[in-house]
## 1
Amino acid sequence: MKAKLEAFAHLHLNMFEIVLAEAPNPGSGERQNQSNVWISYFQDTLRRCSLIRKVLEEPASNRIWSRVLLEQYSDWKLQ
């Protein structure tokens, strides 16, 4: 079961990696766009899922995950 949960976490991170890399820069105020929704979803997932946070904290994560995804995670941790 643990391996299945970790695989599910990796699946989600792969999805976020693609979306965050391809989505346009988020807008602010009245100029919000779909990127704002994805970033909010990513942040909510980080808040709710300790396993995804654990995967992102692994020593090899900087070799696995994109700079964009890791920067979003780093920004979330500073909030």
## 2
Amino acid sequence: MSNGCFNRAPFAQHIRMQDGWIESETSRWPVMAEVPFVMAKDCRYTHTTLGQQDEKCQGCKWRVEVGNV
């Protein structure tokens, strides 16, 4: 059995998010904006000692080999 993130699909380059409202007298609509995805795209868990030892991460394409954790 592996972790839920095992070989997950790549993260999107941009994310669609709400940025306020457009209002009229009778209704309102969300204003949507695309923002860049700025979080790390590799596996941050495998940068830790615990992540390096986790057998459920073995063979994952996002795994990072870290020396001297």
